[in-house]
Amino acid sequence: MKKFTFLLALLGGFAFTSQAQRIETVPQTSADVGLTPIKQGNWMVGGSLGNLGYSFEGEAFNIQLQPRAGYFVSDGIAVGAQATLGFTAVNDRDNEWNYGIAPFVRYYFPGGATASSRFFAQGDIGIAGSSAGNDVSLALGANVGYAHFITQSVALEAILGYNYTKANVNLGDKATGLGVGLGFQIYLPGRR
């Protein structure tokens, strides 16, 4: 009888333990962050992973990767640098690889957002080049975007903008176009 009671107690303990360790979680889709990630002294790193664009002059399609890093000089205002690595498919010509680097300024709008999201505007001016020629020239960008915070320090972003460059020698003397980008940013707290 002792063995049977001990066996029932042991099986009951296993059943209780197996139920107690079952943890069901739902992936987090948003976090109330307020102004915490965009405070003065914080850092941001990340970038656009899939920039798609269309050039008006040469009827070309491009895709780019844009890593970026910035520092918040004031609440909601970040300055930093971004690199551009991309591929351009040109009608009836050789395809080309392009590259560039540009400092940027990003401003997060205080209104029109929720505790888990922010609208922003970003401008950049830098240099760019392409595999079609040896020229390195001016590159400009004006973008607006939306950052949705999925955690206290990570935001998914969508960016829409207008870009201008004189580096695409294969397309003529300049290239302008619209671009759409999807990416993410990681917001790191600065020293206090």
TrEMBL record:
The keyword Signal applies. InterPro entries: OMP/PagP_B-barrel (IPR011250). It comes from the Bacteria. Keywords: Signal. Residues 1-20 form the signal peptide. This is Outer membrane protein with beta-barrel domain. It comes from Sphingobacterium allocomposti.
